[in-house]
């Protein structure tokens, strides 16, 4: 093995013929997996940690927690899942079903109801088999009634059974081989059906119920049963070849797992787990046929051994298998001796699945207090608990079904009814070409040219880059690649050879050939268009200059002259065509002849700027063509027409914005428009200063005709409806020009002033706006609400135009509104009311005004009653509410 590893690493870094397209078909249950090893063989996009759960926006698949799910089956981009029968909270019975989902987004395509076999708590729900018969997709599944169910295309479910007197459930997952379905039953039989004709073929008798999938190897079908017996039958004749009880002296032995086929020592073996801590291998060929060898765990402190329910996974001559006590073993396939174990917190019932150097397995809690299980990732190079413990992902409800790997993703059906999807790492590709874009310019017929395609993996610790290089068939006459498929985890170079021999004596003048090359990989696609000119021996020329750059200005048309020289570089003579691709560039002469007598000629041209737009305009002067010279020349001409400088101007420097309700909590928007009266574009706008806190945000936005709009956001929450007209002055700078802008607010008066006091709180509300107080409202000894005079006076003043006066020498508060004057005197039990007609009334107060803590408190009810306000008292929240209507403008 030590000699082989360096060779494998070398091959991985070199070009090889590999699978160059994705193959997202994965049947995890044994009997569905054609390799019988539990290994994902997706070379195109294997699974690489770390894993990341797909977001809900991409994948959100959740089913009833009381309805166990099968291992997902992935076939041709779809996910097939069986859901078991269940009762809901109303004890309503729901039959099981097969669901077909998209592996991309979890969207359900279809669902078919049928009686799912009734397995026990620690036996997975049988998964379906999906196969193709001809051009038709078939879904095959056994049921509780002892029948085989087949779904063909979109047609209804079809059923067939072996016509047993008593229908026993078919409890195993089906195994498909040669259009025949093999499936285990509680009736101590394995049945065989022709799934194309839906006819019963034969049965293979067991001594106990068969709950695991039968295994096919050559002409044999073999399986274990609940009696602890292992059977090998000729699947063509139905004849029993042998039956073995691998642990003859063991009572209550039960074979729990499907057999995995493994190769060792030039022979094939059936490997399976059982109760009593046993793992067996049975020979399937030669002098070892029917012989069994065993591994057995040590007893635990209670004198017991675990049960192996999981199907074994075989890799690199090692058996990997988990047990119901949470131990995960590595066992030598040759010696059947332990190579170490890892102890997990919860039980293992499902097969471990390998991809690359990692194994993925799930755990499940069986205790009285159920806990969530885990998805565990084990590095096969270390196989240590410490490493494994750091790579655990919580799976709600745990899982007794196998993880499924397809297309760089992992899928798990959990005990919580959720189907998880995890993304593995994906590679990133970098492709470069030499020469650039594989542009080979001119190649003389009779010679070859060479290039390279360099493919590099941009990330380490990701799946290898795998792909193919796709070219047209016609390009293979003149272009050959060193390889057309590749695989690498670092960097590779693929040779490109341009061959001219095919065109010898077939072209008389330079001829351009192009094609398309696509690098199609598991990290995406990259495309380029190789180009080459095959040319016979022709004269060559050169020009004295390759680029001309001129400048002009808007509104000033010019005729800009230019000149260059062309020379004969090789050959006796050359007839040269000279042309421009733009009408504004005019050539003096369109045809010139160079010779050894006249080896160089000056070419005059001029550029007319009258029709050119602002910015840069480009033209190309072409000298010669491929039929007359070896390498035609292209000269680039650029003229930049510059625009006038910008000239900002403001339309309205002063704006008035009407605020309907400054108490609503809403913000308002105002705007100033700046127009460009010059050329170019307005730039570098800034608000240098503003003098109002209620202007909370200023933003410039581009508008039509190169103008700018200054958007102003106003928060009026600090203002009162009857405040004098608030004004904000701003200084704005655009293109270094200063503008003074004024924004005035017109505050509309509100019809209602609602004031709320909560006993004991240092805040009150005015029309739902919370405001602070420096003293709290309280209940007087006589049971009346008392509030600080200021906090009922301010709102009445702001809203209603009321006047509040304090006459200190008389210890009197005056409230004046609508020609009514209310007098409240500190310590005096009567309120004095002066009416508009001059009459005076007095009203008895239960609680007179008083001074507490240096603050004057008054009973607000007398104020409300005097001025016609509505009064509400909420005894539960201790809230007093006063609503003053028909506020008057001052």
The percentage of residues in β strands lies in over 45%
Residue runs with pLDDT of under 50 for 5 or more positions: 1-17, 27-32
Structural class: mainly beta
Shape: flat
What Rg is obtained from the alpha carbons, in whole angstroms?
45 Å
What order do the strands of the largest sheet run in, or round the barrel if closed?
A: 1-4-5-8-9
Helix proportion range: under 10%
Mean pLDDT, nearest integer? 87
Tell me the number of helical segments per DSSP (H or I, 4 or more residues long): 4
Instruction: List how many beta strands DSSP finds.
Output: 78
State the end-to-end distance.
Answer: 99 Å
Main pleated-sheet profile:
5 strands, antiparallel
Overall description:
The protein is mainly beta and 890 residues long. 4% of the residues lie in helices and 47% in strands. It has four helices and 78 strands. The strands form 19 sheets. Strands 1-4-5-8-9 form a five-stranded antiparallel sheet, with no helix packed on it. Strands 2, 3, 34, 35 and 36 form a five-stranded antiparallel sheet that branches. Strand 73 (830-834) and strand 74 (840-844) form a beta hairpin. The longest helix is centred in the C-terminal third of the chain and has 11 residues, at 790-800. The N and C termini lie far apart (99 Å).
Task: Give the topology.
Layout: H1 4-12, E1 26-27, E2 52-53, E3 61-62, E4 73-75, E5 78-83, E6 86-87, E7 93-94, E8 96-102, E9 108-114, E10 129-133, E11 136-142, E12 148-152, E13 158-160, E14 175-177, E15 180-185, E16 189-194, E17 199-205, E18 215-217, E19 220-224, E20 230-234, E21 240-244, E22 260-264, E23 267-273, E24 278-283, E25 292-296, E26 313-315, E27 318-322, E28 327-332, E29 338-343, E30 353-355, E31 358-362, E32 373-379, H2 385-389, E33 392-395, E34 404-406, E35 409-413, E36 418-423, E37 429-434, E38 439-444, E39 449-457, E40 465-470, E41 479-481, E42 485-488, E43 491-498, E44 511-514, E45 517-521, E46 524-528, E47 531-535, E48 540-543, E49 547-553, E50 559-570, E51 573-580, E52 585-587, E53 591-595, E54 600-608, E55 615-623, E56 633-642, E57 648-650, E58 654-659, E59 668-676, E60 686-690, E61 695-702, E62 708-714, E63 727-734, E64 737-747, E65 752-758, E66 763-766, E67 769-772, E68 778-779, E69 785-788, H3 790-800, E70 803-807, E71 812-817, E72 820-825, E73 830-834, E74 840-844, E75 850-852, E76 855-858, H4 860-866, ...
Parallel strand pairs: 38-47, 49-56, 58-64
Antiparallel strand pairs: 1-4, 2-36, 3-36, 4-5, 5-8, 6-7, 8-9, 10-11, 11-12, 12-13, 14-15, 15-16, 16-17, 18-19, 19-20, 20-21, 22-23, 23-24, 24-25, 26-27, 27-28, 28-29, 30-31, 31-32, 32-33, 34-35, 35-36, 37-39, 39-43, 40-42, 40-45, 41-43, 44-47, 45-46, 48-50, 50-54, 51-53, 51-55, 52-54, 55-56, ...
């Amino acid at each position: 093995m030590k000699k082989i590893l360096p060779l494998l690493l070398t091959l991985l870094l070199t070009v090889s013929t590999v699978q160059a397209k994705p193959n997202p078909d994965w049947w995890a249950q044994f009997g569905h997996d054609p390799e019988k090893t539990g290994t994902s063989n997706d070379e195109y996009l294997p699974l690489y940690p770390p894993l990341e759960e797909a977001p809900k926006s991409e994948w959100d698949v959740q089913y009833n927690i009381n309805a166990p799910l099968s291992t997902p089956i992935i076939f041709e981009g779809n996910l097939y899942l069986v859901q078991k029968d269940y009762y809901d909270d109303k004890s309503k019975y729901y039959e099981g079903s097969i669901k077909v989902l998209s592996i991309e987004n979890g969207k359900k395509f279809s669902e078919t109801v049928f009686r799912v076999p009734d397995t026990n708590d620690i036996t997975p729900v049988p998964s379906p088999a999906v196969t193709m018969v001809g051009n038709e997709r078939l879904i095959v599944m056994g049921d509780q009634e002892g029948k085989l169910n087949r779904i063909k295309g979109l047609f209804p479910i079809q059923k067939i059974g072996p016509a047993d007197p008593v229908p026993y459930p078919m409890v195993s997952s089906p195994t498909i081989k040669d259009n025949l379905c093999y499936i285990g039953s509680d009736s101590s039989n394995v049945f065989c059906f022709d799934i194309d004709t839906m006819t019963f073929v034969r049965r293979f008798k067991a001594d106990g119920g068969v709950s695991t999938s039968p295994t096919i190897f050559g002409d044999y079908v073999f399986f274990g049963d609940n009696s602890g017996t292992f059977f090998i039958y000729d699947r063509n004749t139905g004849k029993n070849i042998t039956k073995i009880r691998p642990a003859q002296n063991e009572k209550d032995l039960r074979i729990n797992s499907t057999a995995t086929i493994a190769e060792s020592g030039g022979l094939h073996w059936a490997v399976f787990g059982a109760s009593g801590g046993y793992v067996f291998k049975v020979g399937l060929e030669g002098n070892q046929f029917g012989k069994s060898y065993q591994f057995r765990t040590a007893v635990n402190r209670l004198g017991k051994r675990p049960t192996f329910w999981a199907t074994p996974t075989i890799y690199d001559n090692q058996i990997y298998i988990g047990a119901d006590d949470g131990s995960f073993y590595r066992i030598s396939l040759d010696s059947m001796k332990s190579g170490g174990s890892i102890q997990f917190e919860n039980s293992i019932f499902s097969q471990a699945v390998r991809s690359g150097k990692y194994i993925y397995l799930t755990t499940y809690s069986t205790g009285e207090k159920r806990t969530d299980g885990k998805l565990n990732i084990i590095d096969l190079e270390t196989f240590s608990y410490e490493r494994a413990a750091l790579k655990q992902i919580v799976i709600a409800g745990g899982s007794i079904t196998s993880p499924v790997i397809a297309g760089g993703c992992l899928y798990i059906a959990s005990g919580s009814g959720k189907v998880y999807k995890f993304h593995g790492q994906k590679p990133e590709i970098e492709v470069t070409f030499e020469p650039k874009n594989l542009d080979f310019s001119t190649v003389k017929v009779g010679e070859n040219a060479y290039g390279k395609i360099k493919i590099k993996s941009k990330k380490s610790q990701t799946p290898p880059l795998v792909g193919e290089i796709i070219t047209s068939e016609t390009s293979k006459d003149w272009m050959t690649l060193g390889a057309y498929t590749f695989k690498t985890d670092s960097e590779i170079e693929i040779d490109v050879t341009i061959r001219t021999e095919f065109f010898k004596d077939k072209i008389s003048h330079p001829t351009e050939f192009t094609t398309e090359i696509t690098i199609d990989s598991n990290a995406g696609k990259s495309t380029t268009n190789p180009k080459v000119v095959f040319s016979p021996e022709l004269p060559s020329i050169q020009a004295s200059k390759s680029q001309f750059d001129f400048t002009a200005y808007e509104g000033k048309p010019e005729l800009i002259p230019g000149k260059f020289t062309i020379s004969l570089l090789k050959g006796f003579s050359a007839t040269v065509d000279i042309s421009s691709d733009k009408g504004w560039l005019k050539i003096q002469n369109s045809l010139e002849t160079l010779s050894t007598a006249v080896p160089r000629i000056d070419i005059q041209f001029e550029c007319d700027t009258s029709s050119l737009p602002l910015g840069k305009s480009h033209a190309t002067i072409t000298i010669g063509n491929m039929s007359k010279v070896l390498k035609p020349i292209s000269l680039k001409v650029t003229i930049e027409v510059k625009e006038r400088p910008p000239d900002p101007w403001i339309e309205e420097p002063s704006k008035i914005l009407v605020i309907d309700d400054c108490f609503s909590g809403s913000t308002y928007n105002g705007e100033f428009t700046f127009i460009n009266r010059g050329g170019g574009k307005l730039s570098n706008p800034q608000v240098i200063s503003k003098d109002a806190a209620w202007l909370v945000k200023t933003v410039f936005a581009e508008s039509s005709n190169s103008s700018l709009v200054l958007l102003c956001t106003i928060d009026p929450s600090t203002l009162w409806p009857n405040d004098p007209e608030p004004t904000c002055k701003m200084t704005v700078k655009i293109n270094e020009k200063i503008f003074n802008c004024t924004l005035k607010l017109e505050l509309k008066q509100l019809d209602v002033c609602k004031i709320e006091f909560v006993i004991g709180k240092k805040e009150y509300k005015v029309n739902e706006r919370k405001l602070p107080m420096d003293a709290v409202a309280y209940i007087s000894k006589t049971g009346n609400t008392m509030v600080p005079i200021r906090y009922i006076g301010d709102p009445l003043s702001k809203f209603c135009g009321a006047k509040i006066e304090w006459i200190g020498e008389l210890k009197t508060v005056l409230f004046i509104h609508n020609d009514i004057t209310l007098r409240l005197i500190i310590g005096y039990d009567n309120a004095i009311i002066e009416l508009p007609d001059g009459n005076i009334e007095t009203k008895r107060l239960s609680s007179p005004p008083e001074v507490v803590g240096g603050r004057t408190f008054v009973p607000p009810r007398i104020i409300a009653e005097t001025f016609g306000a509505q009064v509400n008292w909420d005894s539960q929240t201790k809230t007093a509410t006063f609503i003053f209507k028909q506020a008057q403008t001052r």
